[in-house]
Amino acid sequence: MGVECRQPAQALAAIPIVNPVESALGKRNAVLTGTGRRYCAPDCEGWLSIKTVVSGSAAWEAGGRRFVLHENNYLILNDRQHYTITIESSQKVTTFCIFFERGFVEDVYRGMVRPDEELLDAPQPGHFAPLGFYEKIESEPSRLLSKIRAIQRAISAPDSIEDEIEDRFRAIAEAMVREHQQADSARAKLPAVRAATREELYKRLLRGRDCLLSLQSQPVRLLEAARAACLSPYHFHRTFTRVFSETPHAFLTRQRLARATHLLTQTDHSVTDICLETGFESLGSFSTLFRHRFGASPREFRLSHARK
C-alpha cells in the first residue's frame, strides 16, 4: 500500500477528509495517506494536489518526467494531470498527499490578487480558470511544506475539528499562490527578450533542478542535470546560478545536508547510513561539510537535538 491507499489509519478514521472514497476527490478538500514498502498505481488522472513523503522515498511519473520525493520536498501536480506513483523500498514509506476541491485554490488566488471592488461586484465567478502551477520538485526551506506538516499534525490529533482543518487548507492554498508568484519573479531574472524564450528556458532549468533533487541520494554530475534540462553544461550552470542565486553544486549540497538533519533528528539511522542515504561519497567529507554548515559533527548535532 502506498501514497494513495484508501484504507484509513485507525487514528484518523474519525476525520472524513482523510482517505475518503475516490468519488469524493475533487468535490472537497481531502488527504490521502498510507504506509507500505511496495505500491504502484499506474496512469491515474488526478486533481490539483500536493505530493509529500513523511518518511522514505517515493516516485511519481507525470508529463514524461520522473520525480523522486524524499522527506524534505514536495511536488504539485495540476488538475487532470495523468501520473503514476511507485514505491519500491526495503523500509516502510509513509506518504501524505493533499487534494483540493476544484476551484478552491483559484478562489484563494482571486481573493489575494484582485481588488476589493471587483470581488464585491462578482463575489461568485461562474468559472475558475486553472492556475497552471509549475510541476516541479520544491524543497526546504519552504513556507508551504511547513504548513503541510502542520495540517498533518492537526489531523493526527485526537481532538481535531474539521473547520480548523479547513482553515489550514486555506493557509496551504495561500502559500501555494505566493510560491507561484515567486516562481514568476525567478523566471523574470532570465535575460531573454522574448517572454516565450524565458518561459522555455525556465522550464528547462526546472527539469535540471528536478534531476538534482530526484538523485540527491546518489552521486550525480552536472552533465546529467544539464542533459535533463536539454542545455549545455556551461549554459545550465550559468543560468541556474543566475536564477536560483547559487551554483548547482551548492544547491545540491544544501539539499543533502537539509535531508541529513531530518534523518538525524527524526530517525534512528546510523550516521554512516545517513551519509549514504544523502548521496555523500565518504563519511569524512560528509562530517566535514556538516560541521562547517552547522558547527557540530552529525553525532553531536543528534545528541544536542535529543537533549533539547
Describe this structure in words.
By secondary structure, the chain is of the alpha+beta class. Helices cover 47% and strands 19% of the residues. It has helices at residues 104-113, 116-121, 143-156, 162-187, 195-214, 222-229, 233-244, 248-266, 271-277, 283-294, 298-307; strands at 30-45, 49-55, 58-62, 65-69, 73-77, 82-99, 137-139. Strands 1, 2, 3, 4, 5, 6 and 7 form a seven-stranded antiparallel β-sheet that branches. Strand 3 and strand 4 (65-69) form a beta hairpin. Helix 5 packs across helix 6 (222-229), helix 6 crosses helix 7 (233-244) and helix 8 (248-266) crosses helix 11 (298-307). The two termini are 35 Å apart.
Key descriptive features of the protein:
single chain, 308 residues, alpha+beta, seven-stranded antiparallel sheet, 7 strands, globular, disordered N terminus
Q: What is the N-to-C order of secondary-structure elements (H for helix, E for strand)?
A: EEEEEEHHEHHHHHHHHH
Low-confidence segments, given as residue ranges, are 1-15
How widely separated are the two ends?
35 Å
Give the overall silhouette: globular
Question: What order do the helices and strands come in, and which of them pair?
Answer:
Elements (H helix, E strand, L loop, with lengths): L29 E16 L3 E7 L2 E5 L2 E5 L3 E5 L4 E18 L4 H10 L2 H6 L15 E3 L3 H14 L5 H26 L7 H20 L7 H8 L3 H12 L3 H19 L4 H7 L5 H12 L3 H10 L1
Antiparallel strand pairs: 1-6, 2-5, 2-6, 3-4, 3-6, 5-7
